Amino acid sequence: MSSAAIDLAGVRKSFGDKIIVDELSFSVARGECFGLLGPNGAGKSTIARMLLGMIAPDAGKITVLNEPVPARARVARVRIGVVPQFDNLELEFTVRENLLVFGRYFGMSARKVETIVPSLLEFARLESKADVRVAHLSGGMKRRLTLARALINDPHLLVMDEPTTGLDPHARHLIWERLRVLLARGKTILLTTHFMEEAERLCDRLCVLESGRKIAEGKPDVLIDEHIGCDVIEIYGGDPHEFGELLKPYARHIEVSGETLFCYAPYPEQVRVQLRGRAGLRILQRPPNLEDVFLRLTGREMEK
Amino acid sequence: MGESYAALMPANAYNWIAVWRRNFLAWRKVALASVLGNLADPITNLFGLGFGLGLIVGRVEGTSYIAFLAAGMVATSAMTSATFETMYATFARMDAKRTWEAILSTQLTLGDVVLGELVWAASKSVLAGAAIGIVAATLGYASWASILYAMPMVALTGLVFASLAMVVISLAPSYDYFVFYQTLILTPMVFLCGAIFPMSQLPSSFQQVAGLLPLAHSVDLIRPAMLESADSGRAVFHVGALCMYAVLPFFVSTALFRRRLLR
């Protein structure tokens, strides 16, 4: 078995004359959690679908679990678990029936599925819901069932397209905790997300995408350190451009997004002194995060 | 291109069974209503048309009109049952319910999924055809053995019309477009193909065209079987024609689904 779980080299894809993925290369090691981070329309889902062989690239080479994709994607998919962006569970079926039916798609007998259902339900914290129809589950439970379903074939690799989009914070934290358990078991995870927090908490490494291009790649803390490397002061209220001029001498860098001014300041006290006595301002000082990296690299905020 | 199209084909001879069983499990939950619907519809039609019109029409092609009609209705109900299963239930699984998307993330190919859906729709046809057959046999308009004998032909008819409807749903943007297929293709076929009255009643130019239509082959296969006047030479010809109607649309729809889904 060779090293990388996923390898992309010079992958391109366009629909019509719109370029969706542009000369993308990255590699995911076995046991790693790798994130594709970017705003909606950055090409994340297209990449995830290409890894599964659902979309053929126009150019470039994709290898997943040592299989060339899409040519032998079907063989690769035997060892891949997929958590799609939109739930596609069987709403009329019970939790148990969902697992049974999905196991059959992998050629598993009902008896074989029955033996692993208890451990999957325990993993998904759905022990008490085995015979409940999926239509009656909450959004977080459905996502956890989708996750359990993705594990039915004991995959080496999990491909997750926005696994926590649309969940409330509690449900999201529970999913993150479950994913860390999977990583501890040695699974490889590729996830797409537009949540900076999700990427920072889970990913060993990530690739920041904008309009199908890779604009940065690395460990989250290294990226933050390299591109920002100091505290951030957010200032709301007043004219951000006016403050920009005022604070320029005291900041390493300044970004304006909407009505917020982001001041990257190695010495935050100096900035605070300048703003003292000004009424109507809201000032927030915080450590830097991936959101700042994205803003720094693209000049715009991710979720706008 | 050719290689990637080949990758869409059924991966083996049994993957489709998982799709069929998924649909069977879903059907089992509503089986009672489904069976009652299958029985109620033909009973109403047989009594209404058979006895009502039958009295006026008298005998047709040497048999009572109601026996003639019952055989035609076995064929048409196989057609409508497979068509509607595909146009509504399968379309929902392919589109809004994202069932296909889930299946395609496993080791099944698009061809496996389409094949499983086709055989499922054909199974629903057998159910519908059997319901009418049972009513006809109970009333003495066909023998029980002939009903059993007709069932493989009913299944083939179901496969044909599921396959044709598969092409329709691979192209239709939404449910609203199905009505065109229904009113412009299916309904005329019922009247042209000898299901309700003999094709010999049609102007001769119509007869030639109508003879090529899939439902005409089904009716010409199923009616002699049920009325026990089958001619094996003709039967082979009709079976061959129906097989073409089942297989060609399968390849066309699979290619069209790829364009629609795998991009």
Automatic annotation (TrEMBL), chain A:
Function: Involved in beta-(1-->2)glucan export. Transmembrane domains (TMD) form a pore in the inner membrane and the ATP-binding domain (NBD) is responsible for energy generation.
Entry keyword annotation includes Cytoplasm: no
Record-linked InterPro entries: AAA+_ATPase (IPR003593), ABC_transporter-like_ATP-bd (IPR003439), ABC_transporter-like_CS (IPR017871), ABC_transporter_ATP-binding (IPR050763), ABC_transptNodI (IPR005978), P-loop_NTPase (IPR027417)
Name of the gene encoding the protein in the UniProt record: drrA_1
Similarity section: Belongs to the ABC transporter superfamily.
SMART domains: AAA
Protein name as annotated: Daunorubicin/doxorubicin resistance ATP-binding protein DrrA
Pfam families: ABC_tran
GO cellular component terms listed in the entry, alphabetical order: plasma membrane
Source species: Bradyrhizobium ivorense
EC primary class: hydrolase
NCBIfam families given in the database record: nodI (TIGR01288), PRK13536.1 (NF010059), PRK13537.1 (NF010060)
Keyword Cell membrane: yes
Domain ABC transporter, chain residue ranges per copy: 6-236
EC id: 3.6.3.-
UniProtKB/TrEMBL annotation, chain B:
UniProt GO BP: oligosaccharide transport
Stretches that traverse the bilayer: 30-57, 63-84, 126-144, 150-171, 178-197, 235-257
Name of protein: Nodulation protein J
InterPro entries cross-referenced by the UniProt entry: ABC2_TM, ABC2_TM_bact-type, ABC_2_transport, ABC_transptNodJ, Nod_factor_ABC_transporter
Family: Belongs to the ABC-2 integral membrane protein family. Lipooligosaccharide exporter (TC 3.A.1.102) subfamily.
Function of the protein: Part of the ABC transporter complex NodIJ involved in the export of the nodulation factors (Nod factors), the bacterial signal molecules that induce symbiosis and subsequent nodulation induction. Nod factors are LCO (lipo-chitin oligosaccharide), a modified beta-1,4-linked N-acetylglucosamine oligosaccharide. This subunit encodes the transporter.
Coiled coil (UniProt feature): none
GO cellular component: ATP-binding cassette (ABC) transporter complex
Native source species: Bradyrhizobium ivorense
Alphabetically ordered keywords of this record: Cell inner membrane, Cell membrane, Membrane, Nodulation, Transmembrane, Transmembrane helix, Transport
Annotated membrane topology: Multi-pass membrane protein
Main subcellular localisation: membrane
Record note on quaternary structure: The complex is composed of two ATP-binding proteins (NodI) and two transmembrane proteins (NodJ).
